[in-house]
Specification:
It is built from nine helices and eleven strands. A seven-stranded mixed sheet has the order 3-2-1-4-5-11-10, sandwiched between helices.
Length: 266
C-alpha cells in the first residue's frame, strides 16, 4: 500500500513496512481478548444492545472484531495495514466468523470516504492506545466521523489505553520483552507538559547467547488524560457515561489502571 498523505513516518514504518514485527506483538494479545470482550458485552447489555453492527477503528489483525462477531455482532474493521487485515481474515476464518467480519483497508482519518455504510453502527471500538498518533484535531475528526456513521444511542468504547495519570506515577524509562523468538528493547521519554511520549523500539533476533539486530522504530504520540479525552469525545458527539480501570472486570478507574471509556452517541 502506498503511504497515505500526511502519514507520520513511524506509523508507516511500524504498521506497513515492518508489519511483520508488530504482528508478533498483536498476536500476544489474542489469548487475552475474550475477557475484555465479555466486559464490553456486559456494558452493552445494560444499554439494551445485544447484537448489531460494530465498527472497529484501527483494528489491527482483528482480535476485537473476531471475538465480538463470536458474540453475535457484525463487525467492520478498518486499518491502514494490508498485512494486518490479511492476517485478520485468516483468523476470522479459523474462528468460524468470516461471514460476520468485514475488513477495510484505509486511513481512519478518512473514515466517511472509505466506508459506505448502508446501515448505521450500534457499537464503535478503539482499542490498545490507538489514538494520539497524529494531532488532537485529527482524533476529533476521527471520532466525529465515527459518530456520523453511528445511530443515536450507539456506544463507543475506548479501551486498554495509556493515560497521563498513570505516567505521572509509574513511568519506566526502559524495559524489554521477549516475543516469539524476538527481543524488543524499549527506551521511553515522556514530556508531562505536552503529554507527548517518544519511544524507541529496537528489535533483535535471539541467536543462542547472541543478539542479531533487526530494526529500530522511533514512535511519538500524544497521551490523553481521562478529562481531556472525555472533552474531545463530547465535542465529537459522544457523552462519556462510564470509565473503568479494567474493561474485563469493570472495576473503577484509578491512576494505576489503564483507561477504558464507554461513551454514548448524543
Amino acid at each position: 500500500m502506498q503511504k497515505p498523505a500526511n502519514m507520520k513516518d513511524w506509523v508507516n514504518k511500524l504498521f506497513i513496512e515492518r508489519s511483520d514485527l508488530f504482528l508478533k506483538l498483536m498476536n500476544q494479545r489474542w489469548p487475552k481478548t475474550e475477557e475484555p470482550v465479555n466486559g464490553m458485552v456486559k456494558v452493552l447489555d445494560g444499554f439494551g444492545i445485544k447484537s448489531g453492527r460494530l465498527l472497529d477503528l484501527c483494528c489491527g489483525n482483528g482480535r476485537i472484531s473476531v471475538f465480538m462477531a463470536k458474540k453475535g455482532f457484525r463487525a467492520v474493521g478498518v486499518d491502514i495495514s494490508k498485512a494486518f487485515l490479511e492476517d485478520g481474515k485468516r483468523k476470522a476464518k479459523e474462528h468460524g466468523v468470516s461471514d460476520r467480519v468485514t475488513f477495510v483497508e484505509g486511513d481512519v482519518r478518512r473514515l466517511e470516504d472509505i466506508l459506505k455504510a448502508p446501515q448505521p453502527f450500534d457499537v464503535v471500538v478503539n482499542a490498545w492506545t490507538s489514538i494520539g498518533f497524529f494531532s488532537q484535531d485529527d482524533d476529533l475528526k476521527i471520532f466525529k466521523q465515527a459518530r456520523s456513521l453511528s445511530r443515536e444511542g450507539a456506544i463507543l468504547f475506548v479501551i486498554e489505553t495509556m493515560h497521563t495519570e498513570y505516567l505521572s506515577i509509574r513511568f519506566y524509562p526502559t524495559s524489554y520483552a521477549e516475543i516469539d523468538g524476538l527481543l524488543m528493547l524499549e527506551d521511553r521519554k515522556y514530556d508531562p507538559v505536552s503529554a507527548n511520549a517518544k519511544t524507541s523500539w529496537i528489535f533483535y533476533n535471539k541467536r543462542g547467547q547472541n543478539l542479531e539486530f533487526i530494526d529500530k522504530v522511533e514512535i511519538e504520540h500524544h497521551i490523553y488524560s481521562l478529562s481531556e479525552l472525555s472533552s474531545l469525545l463530547k465535542r465529537a458527539g459522544w457523552e462519556t457515561v462510564a470509565s473503568y480501570g479494567s474493561i474485563s472486570t469493570l472495576q473503577p478507574m484509578s491512576p494505576l489502571t489503564s483507561l477504558n471509556i464507554a461513551a454514548k452517541a448524543t
